[in-house]
Amino acid sequence: MDLVVYYTLFIKLHQVAHSGPADQAVPMASCATVLSPPEVPMELHALNRDKLVQAMRDNLAASSRPVRGFVVLQGGEEQTRYCSDHALLFRQESYFAYLFGVREPGFFGAILHIAHISHLNNVDHSMKISGSRKSVLGEAVKDEVDFKDVASGKSILFAPRLPDDYAVWLGEIKPPSVFKERYMVDMVFYVDELVQVLHSQSDKQGKPLLFLLYGLNTDSNNFSKPAEIEDIEKFDTDLSTLHPILTECRVIKSKMELDIIQYANDVSSEAHIELGDKVWHGMDIPGEAEQDKKHNLRHNLLPSSMPFFNFILPFTIMSSITRHNWPKHGTCYFVHGSILVVQMISAFNGSIPLVMRQARVGMKEYQLESIFLHHVYMYGGCRHCSYTCICATGENSAVLHYGHASAPNDRVGILYLDVTLEDGDIALFDMGAEYHFYGSDITCSFPVNGKFTKDQATIYNAVLAAHNAVIESMRPGVCWIDMHELAEKTILESLKNRGIVLGDIDKMMELRLGAIFMPHGLGHLLGIDTHDPGGYAQGLERPKEPGLKALRTIRKLQEGMVITVEPGCYFIDALLIPAMEDTVKSKFLNREEIAKYRKFGGVRIESDVLVTADGSRNFTNCPRQTWEIEAVMAGAPWPVTRSSIKS
């Protein structure tokens, strides 16, 4: 549809909307949140750089190595979709983001972290670089930056030199001074000046030493990429020192980092529980819209009280637009009997509407994902999510990383026909927003119809007991393996009380029976990456036993760590069938009871938790008790108290 048609439609709708009395004008809903995206101070990244500088000096001094050289990192590059020119949404490389906070692609960064006296004051700032171009900051650098201090820790950004037509297609070409001020660094040059600048800053007559980032990520088994520098042969390079030191810096979070992680949790918690009032399900559309049931109008898919929701169908005729006012749901426009736009108005109930009410029998998994994504971006300013959303219902909730390309939150049945959320399903939603690189990772599990069955409550409460027991036990010095085993044991005890497993719990633990029901690790470090690095520091080896080998860390907890607590209990045929065929393990499994849960799926409860000096602090704020979940799904405001629930 071309622009003229869209504009004509807009005018017609505007005329129709205002054709009645003034009090019939379409109202605009207020924002469904109490949060406001905060401005992030770049001091955060300056402090991160200071932290690295001190750690590098300490490490080099302790190993009796000369305290000299430059830390050099390369930022991320913009990527296209395979061979096309379709640019993918850029997100900065995480180590570079940690040190510099730069959101644009194509940058390099350097830190003068070691004991040396800069030659900058002796450099001719009108010197020619790359043949004919002058140094980008010229005398401004000389006046504003003084490198008389030894071990200065000064920072340099190298920006890509953009072509002139960038200004036509992508906007203003910002001068280096903008990046200097925005990112609170000491100097900014162009990337093509990097070699010359680093040589000019070296105190050594020979080759300057560059500490480059190269090391193993123990979650992905991929290696970080060292900076690719032209004329690298003009430098000495060290590929082993920087990675473990910088990784360790990321493990303990600063107050500023914690504030951002808390905000990401606040937005994500709100999105999990505050997305709407209720969902239409099989709702009769009044008047002229009735015939649209024959025109493939999926009216049961529309959330009835998004703050502002427009549902648009393709059309070609721009006449006969009529209007209907629905007291509960807002204003609807029709073109020749077909719904063109539905404008929804929220009924806020005296408080922000609650998310879990959005899930209803008859909806689709991907609809719930889209609502979460809308909320965290619209109201939280979070353009990125920490990871691909997992919106699993029914049997899909037993697929640990559901939501991937082969199962994209699009529950299907026989012959790949669409299947909606069904009465009696359990839902498992694992979704987290990212703000200024820092993420959140939250999982809520609840019954689609708003009421726990006895079987659902059994499994849910088993997981909740493990979740709470771990958080209550967390404090500095506690080993994470012990926390994982505590979660396993707590779940097994609950399953035994229900008759699902039989026999001695300690013997089950020896046989690693808990891994049948919780095959993943208890949690992981969280920060700029969802699975933040540092889980296996140098000298730590991954366990080999079932369940334990899936742990993303086995460290002892330290104050300032942020780690997820995410126990789960799943009924997965790929694990249950071999266990029941095992002559030893099968003795502990009640086949008859387990058969009742074969189509159950699974439950996971996940919170993001800070290790404090004397315990822990839970950043996540979602309904967890079964009565809380049932209450908010029935309409109670969050947070809910028993006294606020109508009998």
Structure description:
The protein has helices at residues 3-17, 43-62, 94-100, 139-144, 166-169, 176-183, 194-201, 242-251, 255-273, 365-378, 454-473, 480-497, 505-510, 514-517, 573-581, 591-596, 626-633; strands at 70-74, 108-112, 128-129, 133-134, 154-159, 187-190, 209-212, 236-238, 321-326, 330-335, 338-344, 384-385, 390-393, 426-431, 433-435, 438-439, 442-447, 562-565, 568-570, 602-604, 607-612, 615-618. The protein is of the alpha+beta class and 647 residues long. The chain starts with a helix and ends in a 14-residue tail after the last helix. 42% of the residues are buried.
Précis, in short:
With 647 residues, the protein is of the alpha+beta class. The chain has helices spanning 3-17, 43-62, 94-100, 139-144, 166-169, 176-183, 194-201, 242-251, 255-273, 365-378, 454-473, 480-497, 505-510, 514-517, 573-581, 591-596, 626-633; strands spanning 70-74, 108-112, 128-129, 133-134, 154-159, 187-190, 209-212, 236-238, 321-326, 330-335, 338-344, 384-385, 390-393, 426-431, 433-435, 438-439, 442-447, 562-565, 568-570, 602-604, 607-612, 615-618.
